[in-house]
Specification:
There is one protein chain. 26% of the residues lie in helices and 33% in strands. It is built from 17 helices and 43 strands. It has an eight-stranded antiparallel beta barrel. Strands 3-2-1-4-5 form a five-stranded parallel sheet. Strands 6-9-7-8 form a four-stranded antiparallel sheet, covered by helices on one side. The chain starts with 5 loop residues before the first strand and ends with a strand. Bound molecules: ligand MV4. Ligand MV4 binds next to strand 9.
């Protein structure tokens, strides 16, 4: 390691934090780079030094290789780790780092280039004896020739953009009759997406699995494989679940795939961490797909089953050291699964969510659970970057035990302040098809209805716990006897609280709950039913210990303004407390701000910018759910700016006008 003493991480979020942890453990000093949006980010706080590199947009900061190299020079770093994404597979950047006399923690630029073009990569792999899907990837793009090649391969065939990747520009042709139209469509999409309409043709595999081999090569010409990962559960070519080893993998197939992956790496003079992706067909034949010349997001599952730190391997190999272990010294122990926690709303087509993480708790880390994150409670998930919140990795001695660990870990994951994909991941982990390892790239397509059930109104126990938490939080001091004398004075508390709950984004449906305060607890009435409740709310951590009709239950109850987040029985529930006195319009003016209470369209602006207004004065009219909603000034004050125009569509929760209370 002597050659490297200080490493700059040219990335952000969880991978920046993850690399920094290993670098620090190895005694290296660490340098972070950050954009305006990340000035208070976790990776900046963790680093020994941090250099500002520009505005929030990645193209003005994290993608500016020259600024990153200048930052490394200025901070005295002698190596740069690119993480993944951003510049991690940019050959020109790798070259510029080396030209600046710094160590690029990654493969030679020539290896990055060799794997950059799909057709060129396949030609190289063919020469190295790596199995390819039967197909055509030649330079001659004559349409008659392509049609003849398709007929030779045999239908169905898959037409892929040569300059493509990540599944863009792929078209299936089931028969010869369909081929011309499918070819034209694939070429159009390739031209539009990549500026290059060249295509390759392959035998179409109907239900392949995505199995990838982790390879590692050093600068002395040695290369090993650290077994495989199954990443078949994807959505729109974004991995959702990754696991190691691949369920049901035949050891002989594993050895052949590993040997093919090592051959692929050696064929391009590879150095460092790399991943060779294969399609594994149901008959156990496997075919090269592409090679990723970087450390992958899912590398922790490989680390878990081999007890290796791949970033330590990267740093040591980049410093010129030989591979830490030989192939014979590597072995698989147990089973590991990773899921990616994303700020996205599965109920809204996985629309990325932005906002502030008002509450964030992960399962306790240990020998069975690892959490890689780059955010803390209070941090914002920005629109500028990938909305990943964290990676949750579990390990156990076998797959069934690991799946059980995963379900428990997800049940203990609490994210509030924006919608996240935890319920979706929990549904996958609990699905019989997942437990049975019925894995292929169409898993989510096949089981989608089970994984994304239609919205259901909050159950009675959920509303009861949300209400119980609220009334308990209103008692001062917490958990005092509501009828007992406090300081010699009886609390003239109301006999009945009338609450109205609403779900964000679920339109106007409200769920009324009446709370009758009783000597030994509360009687909750909803939908004509009564539920006898009592309990304690710990103000320090939000743990709600409740008894519902004699049954003891625990939950976490977290309140931000009018929003209550309840984490209960492995589920996450977001409820807005409607103020029955303020009526619909009043709700939108929480906390002196004019917030859109629901998705809608601006149909009228009733004041001009800079107008002085009085409390309750109509400001803006939204059309939503076929009704008009007039939003009023929350107080006397000034409308500082109109952020939307008539005709604009607005999402729920956006601030519609700038408002300053007098
Ligand atoms: C295929 C295929 C079936 N047959 N090639 C998707 C993106 C790129 N990694 C290659 N992909 C595929 N290539 C043949 N000949 C199916 C896919 C595919 C896929 C592959 C891996 C993981 C997820 C996938 C999702 C859809 C399609």
């Amino acid at each position: 390691m002597s050659r490297i003493t200080s490493v700059l991480i040219a990335n952000r979020g969880e991978i920046a934090c993850r690399v920094m942890r290993t670098a620090r453990r190895l005694g290296l000093s660490t340098v972070a780079v950050y954009s305006d949006a990340d000035a208070d980010a976790m990776h900046v706080a963790m680093a020994d030094r941090a250099v500002h590199i520009g505005p929030a947009p990645a193209r003005e900061s994290y993608l500016l290789g020259d600024r990153i190299i200048a930052a490394a020079k200025a901070a005295g770093a002698d190596a740069i780790h690119p993480g993944y994404g951003f510049l991690s597979e940019n050959a020109a950047f790798a070259e510029a780092v080396a030209a600046a006399g710094l160590v690029f923690i990654g493969p030679p630029a020539s290896a990055i280039r060799a794997m950059g073009g799909k057709s060129e990569a396949k030609a190289l792999m063919e020469q190295a004896g790596v199995p390819l899907v039967p197909g055509y990837h030649g330079a001659d793009q004559d349409e008659a020739l392509l049609a003849a090649e398709a007929a030779r391969i045999g239908f169905p065939v898959l037409i892929k953009a040569s300059a493509g990747g990540g599944g863009k520009g792929m078209k299936v042709a089931e028969t010869a009759a369909e081929f011309p139209a499918a070819l034209a469509s694939a070429k159009r999409e390739a031209k539009a997406s990549f500026g290059d309409d060249r295509v390759l043709i392959e035998k179409y595999l109907a239900r392949p699995r995505h199995v990838e081999i982790q390879v590692f090569a050093d600068s002395q010409g040695d290369c090993v494989y650290l077994f495989e990962r199954d990443c078949s559960i994807q959505r729109r070519h974004q991995k959702v679940v990754e696991e190691a080893p691949a369920p049901g993998m035949d050891p002989a197939i594993r050895a052949r795939m590993g040997a093919a992956a090592v051959a692929a790496a050696l064929a391009i003079g590879y150095v460092g961490a790399g991943t060779v992706e294969f399609l594994l067909d149901s008959d156990n034949s496997f075919y090269f797909m592409e090679m990723n010349t970087r450390l992958q997001v899912e590398h922790p599952v490989t680390e878990a089953i081999t007890s290796q730190d791949l970033v330590e391997w990267q740093l040591r190999v980049a410093a010129g050291e030989p591979l830490p272990l030989t192939q014979e010294q590597l072995a698989i122990n147990g089973h590991a699964i990773e899921v990616r926690l994303y700020a996205e709303d599965p109920a809204k087509g996985f629309l990325p969510q932005t906002g502030r993480l008002s509450h964030l708790r992960f399962p306790e880390a240990g020998p069975h659970v690892r959490v890689d994150t780059g955010v803390r409670a209070g941090d914002a998930i920005s629109i500028h970057y990938d909305p990943m919140i964290a990676k949750l990795i579990v390990w156990d001695r076998d797959r069934a035990s690991a799946v059980q660990r995963l379900r428990r870990a997800l049940a203990e994951t609490e994210i509030a302040g924006l919608n996240a994909n935890v319920p979706f991941l929990s549904a996958i982990a609990a699905h019989p098809g997942f437990l049975a390892a019925d894995l292929d790239t169409r898993f989510i397509e096949r089981y989608g209805d089970d994984l994304l059930p239609p919205h259901a109104a909050p159950a009675a126990d959920v509303l009861a716990l949300a209400s119980l938490g609220l009334v308990l939080s209103r008692r001062e001091p917490a958990n005092a006897d509501p009828w007992g004398a406090v300081g010699g004075l009886a609390l003239n508390l109301p006999a009945v609280d009338r609450l109205a709950w609403r779900e964000p984004g679920e339109g106007g449906t409200t769920h009324p709950v009446e709370v009758e305060w009783q000597r030994d607890g509360f009687l909750l009435k909803q939908d004509g039913r009564s539920i006898k409740t009592s309990g304690q709310l710990d103000p320090a951590d939000g743990i709600l210990r409740a008894t519902l009709e004699g049954t003891r239950v625990n939950a976490r109850w977290v309140c931000q303004g009018r929003e209550v987040n309840l984490f209960y029985a492995g589920g996450t529930y977001r409820l807005l407390l409607s103020d029955p006195h303020a009526g619909r319009d009043g709700e939108a003016s929480g906390h002196g701000r004019l917030i859109s209470p629901m998705p809608g369209k601006v149909i009228a602006l009733l004041v001009t910018e800079g107008a002085d207004v009085t409390k309750g004065q109509p400001i803006i009219v939204l059309e939503a759910m076929k009704m008009e909603h007039t939003l009023k000034a929350p107080a006397d004050g000034k409308v500082t700016d109109l952020r939307y125009q008539v005709g604009d569509q607005v999402a729920e929760g956006v601030e519609l006008v700038g408002f300053e209370a007098a």
